[in-house]
């Protein structure tokens, strides 16, 4: 069965929504499946991939299993050593998936911003204990319904504490730490590879991108702002709208996770407009103007959405067609990292059959000068859970090895000369 993903919040109908969990059978992130065993009074429902689903939510599989038991009025049992999680009785997969949505709403999603990037924390006040969802996305602490039977189980089996000193590092989900999907903003490669986080890497912005390729027709397009009085009024109006978004989202860049953010709007616009465009160069200009209209033409997060929305399974050829647009948008190290993150999501989640083509994709981006050697080398050698789950990140980076080897050999040749 083909692999795929579904939003952690299944009520969000947006394929650019960042937080996702398994939908169909996949080697890396399968959907919650069930297997009925036994007969009569001994019949039981085994969830063979409970660990994988719980890991996507950064919650222990014992929590989700126990929750099913509480909701269904059934006994549960777990054998963590052998990775077996059982709910007594016969229950179909769809019913358990519906209950999983309820679990996500009650014990994963932030009570304020509804993002799943949370960790459970137990707060003690005298003899009382409360369970709090501590959100890394918006910083709000929201409580859970302490009347639910699962809270008793959580208090008796508290989540492991997250490691200190690592931004967004929620630890291993199977240990019960943190929240959010495979795309959460934790440190690049922090857990097992000792990679630096974005905050620890250099913040220096490189010089403005070189002039657009004179051979490209796109270079002749007018990228400058219209200074007519009417155009100025329109830009002021757009700026006011963008400032409203800033107030709502709580940061100066908005969020690429919000279905109503300018990033998501840009992604949907590209997706809906692609079939109407016959000329890639004209479409590139239209994309830039749309990003400018939404106020995200200079934001590095724009590249995450652009990579997913613009490119298809013919990405190697499309890089050349849209090269001038990429050169115009990629103006810093952060932009390069976001572009690579978007490529990770494209080939790792949407088009896993493209993973063998990663060296050609990187070569295409390198040849149009939107990737620096140091940035792509660091990216390729440090696994990260920032944009996709860890296993997918490993696969994509493993596939990049031929390109990284070519870079290293090219450096050696230069040194010899």
Summed up, what is this model?
The chain is an alpha+beta fold and 417 residues long.
Polypeptide structure, described:
- 42% of the residues lie in helices and 10% in strands.
- The chain has 15 helices and nine strands.
- The chain has helices at 50-57, 61-72, 93-107, 150-156, 229-249, 262-273, 280-294, 302-310, 315-321, 323-329, 333-350, 358-367, 373-381, 390-399, 401-416, and strands at residues 5-7, 20-22, 35-37, 44-46, 76-79, 84-88, 118-125, 128-135, 141-143.
- The strands form three sheets. The protein has a four-stranded antiparallel β-sheet with strand order 3-4-6-5, with helices on one face. It has a three-stranded antiparallel β-sheet with strand order 7-8-9, with helices on one face. Strands 1-2 form a two-stranded antiparallel sheet.
- Strand 8 and strand 9 (141-143) form a beta hairpin.
- Mean pLDDT is 75; it is low at 17-29, 163-225 and 238-254.
Give me the side-by-side strand order of the main sheet: 3-4-6-5
Number of helices, counting only DSSP H or I runs of 4 residues or more: 15
What is the CATH topology descriptor of the largest domain? Answer: Serine Threonine Protein Phosphatase 5, Tetratricopeptide repeat
Give me the strand/helix succession.
EEEEHHEEHEEEHHHHHHHHHHHH
Q: For the CA atoms, what is the radius of gyration?
A: 23 Å
Strand content range: 5-15%
- DSSP summary, beta strand count: 9
Biggest β-sheet description = 4 strands, antiparallel
Low-confidence stretches: 17-29, 163-225, 238-254
What structural class do you assign from the helix and strand content? alpha+beta
The N- to C-terminal Cα distance equals 52 Å
| CATH C-level of the largest domain | Mainly Alpha
**What is the average per-residue confidence, as pLDDT, rounded to a whole number?**
75
CATH architectural grouping of the largest domain: Alpha Horseshoe
Anisotropy-based shape: elongated
Number of domains: 2
* Helix percent band: 40-55%
GO molecular function: eukaryotic initiation factor eIF2 binding; GDP-dissociation inhibitor activity; GTP binding; translation initiation factor activity
Family: Belongs to the eIF-2-beta/eIF-5 family.
Pfam families: eIF-5_eIF-2B, W2
Region (Disordered): 155-199
């Amino acid at each position: 069965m083909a692999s795929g993903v579904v939003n952690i919040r299944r009520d969000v109908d947006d394929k650019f929504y960042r937080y996702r969990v398994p939908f169909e059978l996949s080697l890396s992130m399968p959907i919650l499946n069930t297997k009925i065993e036994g007969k009569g009074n001994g019949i039981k429902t085994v969830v063979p991939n409970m660990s994988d689903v719980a890991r996507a939510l950064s919650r222990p599989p014992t929590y989700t299993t126990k929750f099913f038991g509480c909701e269904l009025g059934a006994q549960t049992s777990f054998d963590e050593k052998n990775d077996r999680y059982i709910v007594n009785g016969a229950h179909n997969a769809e019913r358990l998936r519906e209950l999983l949505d309820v679990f996500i709403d009650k014990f994963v999603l932030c009570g304020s911003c509804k993002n799943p990037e949370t960790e459970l924390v137990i707060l003690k006040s005298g003899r009382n204990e409360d369970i709090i969802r501590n959100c890394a996305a918006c910083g709000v602490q929201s409580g859970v319904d302490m009347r639910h039977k699962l809270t008793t189980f959580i208090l008796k089996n508290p989540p492991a504490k997250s490691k200190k000193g690592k931004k967004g590092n929620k630890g291993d989900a199977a240990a019960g730490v943190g929240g959010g999907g495979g795309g959460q903003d934790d440190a690049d490669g922090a857990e097992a590879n000792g990679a630096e986080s974005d905050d620890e890497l250099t913040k220096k912005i490189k010089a403005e991108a070189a002039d657009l390729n004179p051979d490209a027709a796109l270079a002749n397009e007018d990228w400058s702002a219209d200074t007519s009085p009417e155009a100025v009024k329109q830009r002021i109006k757009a700026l006011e709208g963008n400032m409203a978004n800033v107030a709502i989202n709580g940061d100066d860049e908005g969020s690429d996770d919000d279905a109503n953010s300018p990033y998501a709007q840009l992604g949907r616009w590209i997706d809906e407009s692609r079939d109407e465009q016959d000329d890639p160069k004209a479409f590139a200009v239209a994309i830039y103007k749309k990003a400018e209209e939404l106020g995200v033409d200079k934001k590095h997060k724009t590249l995450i959405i652009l990579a997913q929305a613009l490119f298809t399974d013919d990405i190697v050829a499309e890089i050349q067609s849209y090269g001038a647009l990429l050169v115009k948008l990629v103006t810093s190290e952060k932009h390069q990292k976001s572009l690579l993150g978007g490529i990770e999501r494209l080939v790792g989640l949407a088009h896993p059959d493209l993973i063998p083509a990663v060296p050609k994709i990187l070569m295409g981006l390198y040849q149009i000068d939107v990737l620096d050697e140091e940035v792509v080398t660091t990216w390729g050698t440090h696994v990260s859970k920032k944009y996709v789950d860890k296993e997918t990140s490993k696969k994509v980076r493993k596939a990049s090895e031929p390109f990284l080897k070519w870079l290293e050999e090219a450096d050696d040749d230069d040194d010899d000369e």
